[in-house]
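chain below, 128 aa
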Amino acid sequence: MIDWMNIEQFMEHYTSFFEEMVEFEKVKLRVLMSNDVQAIQTNLLEQQSNAKRIENIEIERQNFFKVHGFENLSLREVIALCDTELNVKLEHTYERLQHAISQIKYHNRKSMEIIHMNLNIYQDAEVR
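prediction:
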């Protein structure tokens, strides 16, 4: 028998983690825009730590799915297996997760634009 309560709790945990990462990406973008070298160095260390945390939570998700018999299923496919009431809750959680991931990608893309712009400025300054 599938422990849907445990799956609901894990989905909430997983989603909350990525929502937390959105806040980190927002801070990273602000730090990059500040051009504060010390703050950028500190943020870079935090970014490395968060990359490891993301790797760990993905391993946790894979192990969790394996233990619950969902090894080869996506989150969407797992949600489709549950009853109607829980399905609505998990769909809402999944939408929050998708929104968080979208926000992470957006802020990361903007951060990369700033980094590339700054690199171009430094390269142009070296040429002159």
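The chain has one domain: 18-127. DSSP finds four helices and no strands in the chain.
thats it, cya
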